[in-house]
Amino acid sequence: MELELLEEIEVSEIIYRPAIKINANTKMEVLSISRNDDYTQIDFVYSPSNKYNCGWWIRIEKDSFIRVKGTTSKLKLIKAINIPFAPRKRFFKSKDSFGHFTLIFPAVPKETESIDIIECESGLLDYFNFYDVSMIKVRTEVIVCNN
Questions:
Q1: Looking at residue 52, which CATH number applies to its domain?
Q2: Which of 86, 100, 129, 131 has its CA at 20 to 30 Å from residue 17's CA atom?
Q3: How far apart are CA 147 and CA 142, in angstroms?
Q4: Looking at the domain assignment, is residue 2 inside a domain?
Q5: pLDDT tens for the 147 residues of the chain, in order
Q6: Distance separating alpha carbons of residues 117 and 73, to the nearest angstrom
């Protein structure tokens, strides 16, 4: 499988390690959400479950989407980078490996405070579903105190 390199897109805002109310898959983390007027880019890292001694895989459903919290509109996945669409799989040989991948969706409205990231809402725990993911950028400045 040929892995695609991420095209550089101009970003107007990046939210690092956003707060997430519900994460159905504890082995997966949202590293960052980048957005501009055209796209919402979400970067993930995934580690294998403890049930794997060696060899594991990842994949994503082509019908994955994001949804602004409180709405029913689905912003469908445009592009997946470093993760194939099901039924294909990306295999890892070691249980100590980590998978890093990126999903690109249409832009969410600028006033969006929270989104859901949904691979499949079937009720199964094997899907990558995140609910109430904060789109509010947390201030990360260093505060210097002089005594």
A1: 2.60.40
A2: 86
A3: 16
A4: no
A5: 334 444 555 667 899 999 999 886 667 899 999 999 999 999 999 877 666 666 778 899 999 999 999 999 999 999 999 999 999 988 877 766 778 999 999 999 999 999 999 998 876 657 889 999 999 986 555 566 766
A6: 12
Q: Is residue 109 part of a domain?
A: yes
Q: What is the DSSP letter of 17?
A: S
What are the DSSP calls for 104-144, one per residue? EEEPPPTT--EEEEES--SS-TTS-EEEEEE-PPPP-----
The pTM for the full model equals 0.82
Helix, strand, coil percent values for the chain (each to nearest 5): 0, 45, 55
Could you tell me if residue 93 is inside a domain? yes
Total domains in the fold of the chain:
1
Q: Could you list the residue range(s) of the whole structural domain that residue 62 is in? A: 13-134
Structure tokens at 89: 């799989």
Examine residue 91 and state whether it is found in any structural domain, yes or no.
Answer: yes
